[in-house]
Amino acid sequence: MSENKFVQVAINLPLNDVFDYSVPQVLQPLVRIGKRVWISFGNRTIVGFIVGISNSSAIARIKEIKSIIDKEPILSPEILELTRWIADYYLCSWGEAIDAAIAMPFKKGKTSIKPRLASQLIPGIDYEKKTGENILNKDQNKALLQLKQSMDKQEFNVFLLHGVTASGKTEVYFGAIEQALQQERDVLVFIPEIALTPQTVQRFTEKFGKEKIALVHSRLSAGEKFTQWQRIKNSQAKIVIGPRSAIFSPFKKLGLIVVDEEHENTYKQEDTPRYHLINTAIKLAQIAQATVILGSATPSLESNYAAKTKQFKLIELPERIKGSELPYVQIVDMRNQSIRTKRLPLLSKVLEDNISRCLKNKEQIIIFLNRRGFSTFVNCQKCGYILQCPKCSLALVFHCDKKQLICHHCSYARPAVNLCPECNGNYINYLGTGTQKVESELCRIFPQARISRMDSDSMRKKTAHFEALDDFKHKKIDILVGTQMLAKGLDFPNVTLVGVISADISLNLPDFRASERTFSLLTQVAGRAGRGKTAGKVIIQTYTPEHYAIECSVNHDYHGFYAKEIVFRKQLNLPPFSRLISIVLRSKEEQTVIAAAESFNQKLRLKIKNQEISVIGPMPMPIAKLKGYFRWGLILNTADILSTNKLIKELLKDNKLSSKIKLAIDVDPRMVV
User: Fold this and answer.
1) Is 447 helix (H, G, I), strand (E, B) or coil?
2) Contact 534, 379 (CB under 8 A)
3) Which domains does the chain have, with CATH numbers?
4) Measured distance CA(296)–CA(281) in Å, rounded
5) Strand 6-10 and strand 19-22: pairing?
6) Cβ atoms 429, 382 nearer than 8 A
7) Given a cut of 80, is residue 56 above it in pLDDT?
8) Chain-centroid distance, C-alpha 77
9) d(CA 530, CA 166)
10) DSSP characters over 492-544
11) Of 106-110, 432-436, 518-522, which range is least confident?
12) What is the DSSP letter of 69?
């Protein structure tokens, strides 16, 4: 008879405990950590995860597990250790962290799922391996040598690979990946945007062959995700490419983690568990004794600061490969344009002329505006009424193709209006600019051009990203209009012009990272131009040309921007000099959430006492009402996340919130909205 009579089970509920269950004698030989079990919880039967086994329990009246689901554990010791750390660091339950780590069918107690179609990396595209060796330049060889020396020791290290756009970071990744494969170790490659998938997969399959590669992203069906999960677990796939959720891939022997465009905000999970990929990847590498490469032309201030303080090892690629020059950047002050034309033009004369020149030369153009829709707000000229979402404290955005007013946060929609709902006047103005309006204006000015738009509205279909970029690659599109998904890592040699509409948009956000976001976005989108034989040009339209984020992006001057920005961060004791925790309370009732926030604030400040933690708030959130909930919040500034987390856990344990209040805690928030 087995001595293991009790198991500790984690469940996917916001409860910061694991639960003891007894094991029937017949099931005791089958019990192993990492397996799923069916358990009775309350009046429901749910899936639980075995995270511990013991010979005794302090629980007097204890329930038995109903059955064991898996023949073999689906959670490796490494993933269990990683999810335990996520639970502690990002203030969620262990069960919630585990639930994020497993493939969808496993959450419902299934053991397998049959794909509807034969699995392909990208439907309709069959990339083949190409022979031939990458020729590296002096800087690339120097970078690769440092990485190989670390990987030969098979010890944990973090490298920041800072290379200007088109400096050949991918070729350095390839060299490091080859080294990992020679050591018979597995590789994780992260990309921030699904739009990058076709080009990334093409380059990787041409180098390593499609048999070794697994692709993980949100647009795969449940069956496709399960197939890829099996290929990784069975070591058929040695290289996994995907966004942040790929961090939980079931590798046997992880040796290398590559995070491309490491500065991107999409690496932060917005729902529970709210983990940031960079921190989580570093923790996983520590567990696996693997090497991490963080690559970017515009590293986050936190990563660059970590490199300067020797927490990371810095590698630099200061020049573009193949001798190509960084594109020439021209600023257009739109204040002068409006004076000249006595109206607010969408496209400046300079940008129009350059688009004409490129079309004449059969060159391609990218037009960038980080705001979708046609008109970004609708108001009445007579009474000043602005049409807002009834569920959110936000203006509705007009979408011309659907003739609808849509909320971009909760998806509320209503038909477009001709009369004001407030005063019944017919002085309705459709103001502001989104990608739809830019596309419409380009079609009007350049009727002969083939124009396409790439944003989350136009990319609804599962394969839409892949098809649009494939058409652009094969020169079936002359002008591609889009949002930030166009700014990241795309490589099209025939693109010689990039136009940026309203470069100031991200500067006006209520966020201390606004300048950093603007500099990064402008520098990255500028890097899409001139990657072939023809020199590139970038035209940035702005109403604030004197802002240092815009001035530094014109000169591709990351170091100059960092030197200015880091001074402000230090003066205000903001990251990287401290850490932030955002606490948001929400309720359907405004007065209820205000009272709860005030009460929470008082108890928190009493708990803090003399510790080095400062509290900002309570205050209404920048978006004070969202999806029908009124929102108030606090921000904690601390030097020690784990001790502050412990304090918050104690506070929540001792002070139960009303059932009318929902609480969200975000450690290291990228943006407080």
Assistant:
1) coil
2) no
3) 6-107 (3.40.1440.60), 138-322 (3.40.50.300), 324-372+434-569 (3.40.50.300), 579-667 (3.30.70.600)
4) 16
5) antiparallel
6) no
7) yes
8) 26
9) 9
10) -TTEEEEEES-TTGGGGSSSTTHHHHHHHHHHHHHTTSS-SSSPPEEEEEES-
11) 432-436
12) -
How many C-beta neighbours within 10 Å does residue 366 have?
24
CA-CA distance, 350 to 369, in Å (whole number)?
17
- Per-residue tokens: 158: 């973090």
Find the DSSP H helices in 377-513. 435-445, 464-473
Average pLDDT on 157-167 reads 93
- Record the tokens describing residue 424, joined without a space: 């019944």
Name the burial class of residue 282, with classes exposed (0-12), middle (13-18) and buried (19+) by CB atoms within 10 angstroms of its CB: buried
Amino acid letter for position 649: K
CA dist 233 and 348 (Å) reads 54
Average pLDDT over residues 490-500: 85
Each residue of 630-660: pLDDT tens digit?
A: 999 999 999 999 999 999 999 998 888 888 9
Rounded CA-CA distance 278/295 in Å is: 11
Question: Is residue 3 predicted with pLDDT exceeding 70?
Answer: no
Check whether 592 has a pLDDT greater than 90.
Answer: yes
Residue 488 pLDDT? 65
The amino acid occupying position 188 is: L
pLDDT on residue 116: 54
DSSP 240-260: EEESGGGGG---SSEEEEEEE
Within 10 Å of residue 383's Cβ, how many Cβ atoms? 12
615-625 residue pLDDT tens: 998 999 989 99
Express the helix, strand and coil content of the chain in percent, nearest 5 each: 35, 25, 40
Q: Give Cα 476 to chain centroid, integer Å.
A: 30
